[in-house]
Amino acid sequence: MNLFQSRSIKKKLTLIIMLISGLSLLLACLAFIMYDLISFKSAMKRDLNILAEVIGANSTAALIFDNAADAKETLAALKAEKHITSACVFTKDGNVFTQFIRDDVNARLLPTKPQPDGQEIRKGHLVLFREIVFDGEAIGTIYIQSDLEELYSRLKRYGVIIVFVLFIASLAAFLMTARLQRIISEPILHLAKMAKIVSAKKDFSVRAEINSQDELGFLSERFNEMLSQIQDRDTALQKAHDTLENQAQELQKELTERKKFERALRHSEERFRDLFDNAPDMYIILEPTGTIVDFNRRGIKELGYRSEEILGKPLKNIMHHHDRTKAEKFINQIQKFEKPPKNIEARLIDKKGNVIWVSKEFSLLKTKKGKLQSIRVICRDITEHRRLQEELKRAHRLEAAGRIAGQIAHDFNNLLGPLAAYPMLLREELPEDHPVLGMVDEMESAANKIATINQQLLALGRRGHYSMEPIDLNDLVQKVGMSLSLPQEITLLEELASGLLLIKAGEAQLTRALTNLFVNAKDAIHGPGKITIRTMNVYLDEPLRGYQTIKRGEYVKLEISDTGAGIRPAALDKIFDPFFTTKTMDRMRGSGLGLSVVYGIVEDHKGYITVKSIPGNGTTFSLYFPVTREVQREVAETIEKIEGGNESILIVDDDPIQRKVATQLLRRLGYRIHTAKSGEEAIDYVRKVSQDLLILDMVMDGIDGTETYRRILEFQPQQKAIVLSGYAMSKRVEKALKLGVGGFVSKPISLNALATVVRKELDE
Amino acid sequence: MNKHISLFLIIFTFNTAGYAQNSKITRATEYGIKAAFVFNFAKFVDWPDEAFVDATQPIVIGVVGRDPFGLNLVQTVRGKTVKGRNLVVKRFTRIEDLDFCNILYISSSEKKRMTRIFKKIKDSSVLTIGETKGFAYEGGMIHLFNMDNKVRFEINVKTAERAGLKISSRLLKLAKIVEDDHTNEN
Description:
The structure holds 2 protein chains of 2 kinds.
Chain A: H1 2-5, H2 9-64, H3 68-76, E1 84-91, E2 96-101, E3 118-122, E4 125-134, E5 137-147, H4 149-180, H5 182-201, H6 215-277, E6 282-286, E7 292-295, H7 297-303, H8 307-310, H9 324-337, E8 344-349, E9 355-366, E10 372-381, H10 383-429, H11 437-461, E11 469-471, H12 473-483, E12 490-496, E13 503-505, H13 507-524, E14 529-540, E15 553-562, H14 569-572, H15 594-604, E16 608-614, E17 618-626, E18 648-652, H16 656-667, E19 672-676, H17 679-688, E20 693-697, H18 705-715, E21 720-725, H19 731-739, E22 743-746, H20 751-763
Parallel strand pairs in A: 12-14, 18-19, 18-20, 20-21, 21-22
Antiparallel strand pairs in A: 1-2, 1-5, 3-4, 4-5, 6-7, 6-10, 8-9, 9-10, 11-13, 14-15, 15-17, 16-17
Chain B: H1 7-17, H2 25-41, E1 45-46, E2 59-64, H3 72-77, E3 81-82, E4 85-92, E5 103-106, H4 114-120, E6 127-130, E7 142-147, E8 150-156, H5 157-162, E9 166-167, H6 169-174, E10 176-178
Parallel strand pairs in B: 2-4, 2-5, 5-6, 6-7, 8-10
Antiparallel strand pairs in B: 1-9, 3-4, 7-8
Helix pairs in contact in B: 1-2
């Protein structure tokens, strides 16, 4: 159909006419042939009927008298009829009486039973059944089959005729149409050409020719009219179009500008949103009632909430319960006075329940009329800041206390010299049954106690100045444990890990720390109880309680638990502060220094200490010391016996009491003792009389011990020396040891310590 | 007598001649067929107009001598018409009894008395049927005989024509035609 539609009108007309004429001719031919075929067929049927009747009549007697041979003869007459292919006579009861079959026909095609009267085309054959009636009585049936050869040959003939007729007719129609179609097609084509010119050249001035008075002529006339109307309108339209175009251009320009503006606006908005979201502080916008309207992304992230958990909820929801009333009060004030309050510090609660300290800065947003629109709150996280402040305060506190303690202790120490030393000398001078001896003993014991406290104070004051050796903490624990005197009702339980790693530690310091902890544990227990001490290897990779950060790695853990009274939570924060004590009972009043010293020592060892306590249940201290891989040095057996000698020793000390104490102690051991009041004097003396050993006080007016030794070494390189110091270990002592000083004795001087160190140095 | 009657014949007999519920089936069947033949001959024979008084007068079939048909003949013709006429069967045991009839079956028992019978009916148009050998040669018209398990017949056309009977060519086509008619002179 499309193919047809795209044809030209000329072709269309030709085609239509040809189609119609061809089709009508074809139909006429077909009708004629149909009619002929139908009449031929009915003639055939009629002939066959007559034939059947004749045969039937001729077969009646044979049928009645059962003479099949005669009937066969009758049927044989059909041989002359070329189109009869087979025939058959059935008896009244339906059996085959006789039959005729042309030679080339298959016998099986014959029916075996008679059928009611009738004719039909069956398998390309015309077949007929007809009852044979004689004297009003049916006596049998005849069947005749005729082929349709004649019909077919007739059809073929007709086919040829139709083709021929159609061809001739079409040719004639074509020739006629070619001329006649012009009557219609030409005016239309002319009109089409005009229309094409109009549309192609936009020339509305052309006009179609009018050649006829029929509908086509009318159409051309209207076309021309239309053209002139269009021409008028076109002019008007062009004018309007020009105006419109100008307006459109202006509009376009405006639109572009507006878009640019919008883009800039959006960009700026994004920038501000970004600024808002990524500001270093939390930024909250509240309704005047205190409901959260907006919350910058950073704030949401920092607190860990999802935005729907915050937005639309009152601010106090995320505040610490202690600060809620304060927050409400602030909101009320803002509503009342419409003035921003001063900055405050308050606590927020994050999603996990952690407390976050923030400083809040309020500002108000008002409408043009001055009505309160919203409240801006900038929250700066000051948690870390506060923590650092706290730590700093505490460090200051410790340092100040330590410094004061150190100064006092140093003076104390010098004064303590004779107090500690003379009881021993007194006891030597007095007969054994002298009544004063009891007092001397008490004096000595008091002096020893003072010395111990003094040592604690000194330890606070001279933090971190002692030599560290790899040691086995288990050995130390056992040593300390053995030296303890525990009441009967307190059990000591040691759970020491086998294969405990070594730590690098100052043995004396650690012993002191342990002792302090033991004493504390013991004092915490009133009545029967248990102290458990445990050691183990641990690996730390997350911060301990009370420490912001820790150095991850291998540690040896020491744990001391008691089943004592425990510590109140309020006190727990302060137990490491100097002079803080809970032991207020007169009898065993504490100095408040014990745990401060432990804390200091642990810190000096780069270790950590934590405490856990349940009031009424007991306290557990856990100490962590970093593991060292250095090998433990073989510790020489300490000489228990006090050995003396007759070597010459020069004691250099600016303090006459100290000089006197040391002289008396050493003279008793047989040494030849000389003294010097200062470093300078000592140098002069050694120049004149060489000495086997120098005993140097570290701190003196003029040049100190180290300097004295250094100068003497210049002319006496083999000079042996030991140092005395009020500080257990200090930079100055270290320096001296580096120069070659063989030993070091801490003040107050004990005979044992002094004798051992002197002998050891001389024997080297 | 043929004792082997084909199935075809049995069916034919039953339908044409009706029932033959006799103990002697073969004989009864054979005579069933013959009764039908006798009846059917009436259809192919035209009697002269004078043979009947009016159009409704029945065709009378007479049997003379010992009747071999039993009930067969009566049953065959019962309720039937030929050319619009009913059929009636009459039995004549003796020649003396012989009366008006259109068809006469002369039993084989009358072999010796055939000439007398023929003489008696000489002037009337009676179709004679018999089974005696040479029946058609000796003054009879239709001779029934058995051949190839079938009942066949021969017809003496001249004898029939003399009696004024016209036999249909269709019947003649099936029959053996007997030309000889010298016995007629007796």
